[in-house]
Amino acid sequence: MTPEQRLDLWLAEEREVVELLNSGPGVGVARPAQLVGKSGLEVMHAMMNGQLPYAEFAKHLSFYAIAARPGSAVFQGTPQREYLNPMGTIHGGWMTSILDSALGCAVLASLPPGQVYTTASLETRYVKGLTLDVRRVRAEATVTRIEGRMALAEASLMGPDGTLYAKATTECRLFDMRAPAPAAVSRPSTSATS
What is the 3-state secondary structure (H, E, C) of the chain? Predict the structure, then answer.
């Protein structure tokens, strides 16, 4: 497959995902009750299918979850002018953000119902400067190990021609999700009027 064919495929996949995201609740935060009983992979699929809200942060930074499988996730992003550093390349913080999102979602996609994660450490290594000439990049992340209450994952950020721009690794803490608070029960008034 040529880089142009790969880019066309990536753009088609992105259009499909964005259409589904926009058909649902849009950006926001899922309520705990919406997550109860769902595995991390089910949460990812519900978000990508427009059944749960997706992160406003990702929308502002022009990247989206494109795929999620057990222990892996793919995010796709659009380098934009507002993400340039003073030297004319895409800011490393933007590249780290898309890598961090893919890494975290790969970990999430490996978790059973009732378990969630938080990032404990994140390390990014930049390989090549990213410019506006690259229309899309993909962060592909894979969980490498889950041991006790810790998960390790690694990711690469690449262009459609296979150029590697950055790599990242993460260590995530795993913990049990808090149960949603029970709904308040309204009781009839017991006060009498005279």
Answer: CCHHHHHHHHHHHHHHHHHHHHHCCCECCCCHHHHCCCCHHHHHHHHHCCCCCECHHHHHCCEEEEEEECCEEEEEECCCHHHECCCCCECHHHHHHHHHHHHHHHHHCCCCCCEEEEEEEEEEEECCCCCCCCCCEEEEEEEEEEECCEEEEEEEEECCCCCEEEEEEEEEEEEECCCCCCCCCCCCCCCCCC
